[in-house]
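User: Sequence in, structure out. Go.
Assistant: Echoing your sequence, followed by the structure tokens.
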Amino acid sequence: MGVGKSSVSRGLATRLGAVLHDLDSEIGDIPALFAAGGEPAFRHAEHATLERLASADGVLALGGGTLQSAKNRALLRGWCVLVLMASPATLESRLTTEGRPLAGRWRELLERRREAWAQYGEPIWTDGLSIPEVIDAVHARC
């Protein structure tokens, strides 16, 4: 949330001549899912969508909480998974709650998700980097 995932994944897919699959976009109306069934409804839709996309080719952009689920992590075996990260000051300046049901809790979520993210190695820090620079860093790792 707020690290540049959407811009970076679009640019990486373009650079590679690959199809982009953005998990959040594929899920659909996330605020409506939250309104209807809260985070459990969203996580169920997220897993079902990831299950469908896990065998696809291309670039797969995940949401920040996707890696919390062991079932989701199992679906991603064989994928090069990288975590993008930004400092709290950068996140504070970038995040708005508009269209992001969990954005108001970003500090809490950051702490809760660190352990799952750590399984994927050192994150790529996006602070002070342009989108092309982040794409270069991602491309170099995968």
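User: And one key feature?
Assistant: The chain has a mean pLDDT of 85.
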